[in-house]
Specification:
Helices cover 69% and strands 0% of the residues. With 305 residues, it is mainly α. It folds into 2 domains: 65 residues, Helix Hairpins; 222 residues, Cytochrome c oxidase, subunit III, four-helix bundle (Four Helix Bundle (Hemerythrin (Met), subunit A), Up-down Bundle). It is globular, with a radius of gyration of 24 Å.
Length: 305
């Protein structure tokens, strides 16, 4: 009888392990720790990050061990064709869940801009007028004035027409150009794998990683300028909330994608990929193209329109 680990017609079933249990425990500690921090912050009580740090460390450790084991199994030839197809479907469904994740936030932005603000301005069957609103309300997007400007001051400036400095005015454009070019460089890296050219693979993949780091750095600089010079914060009303929600989660995904690409770069240097076996790299490139597409949507609907 053929061994299930080498027979390509039998699904490879890994040995039982501790990874899922510890990962679930780490995620629980991380999320509940963050929830406690939010509640204590709102109540004005002191809070420690110990629980969240321990949970995050557990998650990071398990993911490192788990992915290292999957990579080792693949290098040993244990991943048959059926298992590889499951990897493809798994990554595909993961990216689909991410599409739905951002679709919810884009939907919130659309609802706020096109429906809620119009209703507050008196338009439509559900329009609110008269004594329900403050007299100086301006039903245009972005909403720059809050009802209680003393307690919740609105943003001093919006992102569509920044005038803080000529350099900053083009920062979102440069970030867009950087991410779009990084999609090209990672495609060239993929082509280098197919051509079995490891030198070009390492070069183009390394450049992609560098572009990702530059993007994150410019995003941080944008946040610093928004807080210190533009008066645009998370507390500056619905405009600030939607802006930081969308760009913040996207920045997190770019950071995660950059870390994934660094791992792929390390594997490329070690000689792990070839033209017939490179799904780890391909999955990373799919994810990177996804965050690029999301940013194009953000650039259009948050910064331009």
């Amino acid at each position: 009888m053929a061994n299930a680990e080498t027979d390509q017609s039998v699904y490879y079933v890994p040995h039982s392990g501790w990874y899922p249990v510890v990962l679930a425990l780490g995620l629980m500690l991380t999320v509940t720790g963050l929830a406690s921090w939010l509640n204590d912050t709102k109540a004005g009580e002191p809070h420690t990050w110990t629980q969240s740090i321990i949970g995050f460390a557990m998650v990071a450790f398990v993911l490192y061990c788990w992915f290292a084991k999957v990579i080792a199994e693949n290098q040993q030839g244990l991943a048959n064709e059926q298992l590889k197809r499951s990897y493809v479907w798994g990554m595909g469904w993961f990216i689909f869940s991410e599409v739905m994740f951002f679709a919810a936030f884009f939907g919130a932005l659309f609802y706020t801009r096109s429906i809620a603000v119009a209703w507050l301005g008196g338009d439509g069957a559900k329009g609110l007028t008269g004594d329900y609103l403050w007299p100086e309300f301006d039903a245009t997007w972005p909403v720059m004035t809050n009802p209680d400007a003393n307690a919740f001051p609105g943003p001093g400036q919006n992102m569509q027409a920044p005038s803080v400095s000529s350099w900053y005015a083009y920062l979102p454009f440069w970030n867009t150009a950087i991410l779009l070019f990084s999609s090209v460089t990672i495609h060239w890296a993929h082509s280098a794998i197919k051509a079995n050219n490891r030198k070009k693979l390492i070069g183009w993949l390394g450049l992609t990683v560098l572009l990702g780091i530059i993007f994150v750095g410019l995003q941080i600089e944008e946040y610093v300028i928004a807080y210190t010079q533009m008066g645009l914060t998370l507390d500056s009303g619905i405009y600030g909330s939607t802006f930081f929600l969308l760009t913040g989660f996207h920045g997190f995904h770019v950071t995660l994608g950059t870390i994934i690409l660094i791992v792929q770069l390390y594997r490329a240097i070690k000689g792990h990929f070839n033209a017939k076996d490179c799904f780890g790299f391909e999955a990373a490139s799919w994810y990177w193209h996804f965050v690029d597409v999301v940013w194009v949507g953000l650039f259009i609907f948050v910064y331009v329109l």
